Amino acid sequence: MNEENKQLSPADWLRFSGGLYAVGVILAILWRSVYRQAPLFFTSEQSAQEGVAWLADGGIGLFAGLLLVFLSRELMGRLDTGEVLGRTLAGALGPLTWIHTTCLALFSSVSEEMCFRGALQPEVGLVVASILFGLAHFIPRREFLFWTLFSGLAGALLGALYIGTGNLLAPMLAHFVVNALNLPYIVKKYGAETPGP
Fold it and tell me: How many whole angstroms from its chain centre is CA 11?
């Protein structure tokens, strides 16, 4: 089997990631909403009654996401291992279009926030949930340790947004912004030629 046959097509990537993230959503709902009988999208019953401050929470999430995009790109550009990480991630993603990367960003932001912030953080606390989030982004190569550490710190910021706003809107939006802007950036800058939509 040659190297081209080993790489998933964009459609296969979406099916695989969509299925994986759907399992995460289902597990989060089953754990938090069914088993624990607690709100998943909100930090507490009181927060659920207060609802979402769409403009304020959305604005905070957007700002946090743009801040994380800036910091991550600065780190990738300044660290010697940044280009190696970029090429590794681009190679794993393959030639995805912006539509594919936007879908992946949506899947990951909803599922990971429901799992790590909505279901896990109320059980284990902000610090442990952030460490586990960083470990979920672990690549077993020493030169990529900074990415795991950055992911853990980003997870702490997302967890703080969840606590501060009382709901998942801000962390979901921040997470989406990071992935929606960084995935196509990585594919375009470090990957092969990207096909049209």
Answer: 20
